[in-house]
Amino acid sequence: MDIDIREYTEKDLLFVKSSFENLHDYVVSIDPIKRIRKMPGYLEVFFEKFVNNIKNNQGKIYISEFEGKPIGFIGGFVADKQSTENLLEVVPSKLGIISDIYLIPEYRGKKIGEKLMKRMEEYLISNNCDAIWVDTNSFNKPALRLYKSIGFSEREIGLMKKIK
Questions:
Q1: Could you tell me which residues come within 8 angstroms of residue 105 by beta carbon, excluding any fewer than 6 positions away?
Q2: pLDDT digits 0-9 by tens, 26-44
C-alpha cells in the first residue's frame, strides 16, 4: 500500500475536523465504564483548542493519503516552556506533544499510524525536542500497542472506580 504523508493545507480543514470528531466518537464507544461523552459544543471547544495549540506552539498537522484521498492525520506541537513547579520534579526538557492521531477505520493495522508518528517525531526532533509525550486512554488497546511498538513507555497511570 503506497501511502503519502504530507503537510496539512487549508483544503484539509473539513477532513481533519470530521476526523477529530470521529476520534472522540470512537473513544466514547470503547469506554468500558461509559464516563466519556460528547455534549453539544464539544467539537467547537476542543477543535479550537487543538488548532490554537498547533498555531501557537510551533505545531504541525500531517495528513496521510492513499490514492490522493486523505485517510488520517496527526497533530503535534512543541511545549518548551516548563513551569517553575514542573522544574522542581523533572529535568529541564523541550517536550514535543502529539496531541491527536486518527486513521479511518479501514486503514488501521497497516502501519500507517506508525508512519504518521515517525513523521511527527522527525518534525519534533528538528525543533530540538528531547522527548515526546503522547497520551491515550488505557482501554484504547490498539493505540497503546502502536505507541509501545515504536519505543514509547508508560509514564503515568490513572485509575478510576465507578461507584454510582
A1: none
A2: 999 999 999 999 999 999 9
Per-residue confidence (pLDDT) for residue 82, from 0 to 100: 87
Question: Is residue 130 assigned to a domain?
Answer: yes
- The number of domains in the chain is 1
Grid cell digits, residue 94:
523541550
Dihedral angle over CA of 60, 66, 69, 72, nearest 10: -40
DSSP state of 110: S
Residue 67 lies in a domain: yes
Cα dist from 158 to 18, 28, 80, 137, 155, whole Å = 29, 18, 25, 9, 10
pTM comes to 0.94
* Exposure of 84 in the CB half-sphere (CA atoms within 13 A): 0
Contact (CB, 8 A) for 98 and 117 = yes
Give the residue numbers spanning the domain of 134: 3-149
Residue 156 lies in a domain: no
